């Protein structure tokens, strides 16, 4: 009896140790970790963050190459679990020979597969591109619909892809949550959420209207190049002094880039008709 009690006690202790030990995982789409209940920032603080992003990069752009709505849609479908650079390399020639659903369909699945074989999951993606072309021609006269519901019905198109197309091509203030944005929103605590959809909804509530159009680009680019998964580059961060992340690197002084960008915001605010 005493033995079994000891074993149980040891078991519980082990469970406790296992729960608290081990490397700290970086939040990702697959591993959101524990999330906050609400944003760490007031309205004014959130606005200040987006003012910095705007001052630093007034017209942010996505990094996928495209020539029209159709090629943008195909590029985004191909970019799932692949880098934008890799997708651009593969689509450069593909889009030269097929920039409409009709031309893509005429190429056929085998040729599309050959053109995109350097991209991960290319077999499945080639299949989806052909099915997507068939559906675009049959249901939308070959045009890309400006409508989330219709976009999400296309093969290989999920909410994120629909949001990217609606934002970049049609100018809707949608927010496409990729792995970088998801990590950033949770890490700095601006729009905490357990799933990409939670984060998207949380951002919709906190992003000031005037920054809605570019918000997802700023956040994606910031997560991809500055607030990186393994080690955020806080010394290169334009929002360093505004950031409330526990991961923020301690420093004696505010980085030059944050000071310079803050000064640009201040100038824009004091000048007539400047800034958004
Ligand atoms: S200060 Fe560091 S942790 Fe905060 S947003 Fe910038 S890079 Fe990320």
What proportion strand?
under 5%
CATH topology of the largest domain: Endonuclease Iii, domain 2
Please name the CATH architecture of the largest domain: Orthogonal Bundle
Ligand inventory reads: iron/sulfur cluster
Helix content: 40-55%
N-to-C span: 73 Å
CATH H-level superfamily of the largest domain: Helix-hairpin-Helix base-excision DNA repair enzymes (C-terminal)
Structural class: mainly alpha
pLDDT average, as an integer? 90
Contiguous helical run count: 13
Extended strand count = 0
Structural shape: elongated
**In terms of per-residue confidence, which ranges show pLDDT below 50 for 5 or more consecutive residues?**
5-9, 13-22
How does the major sheet shape up?
A: none
H/E series: HHHHHHHHHHHHH
Number of domains: 2
**Radius of gyration over alpha carbons?**
23 Å
Question: What report would you give on this structure?
Answer:
The chain has 276 residues and is an all-alpha fold. It has two domains: 43-60 and 175-270, Helix-hairpin-Helix base-excision DNA repair enzymes (C-terminal) (Endonuclease Iii, domain 2, Orthogonal Bundle); 69-168, Endonuclease III, domain 1 (Orthogonal Bundle), CATH 1.10.340. The protein is built from 13 helices and no strands. It is elongated and about 60 Å long. Iron/sulfur cluster is lined by residues 188, 226-227, 232-234, 237, 239-240, 243, 245, 247-248.
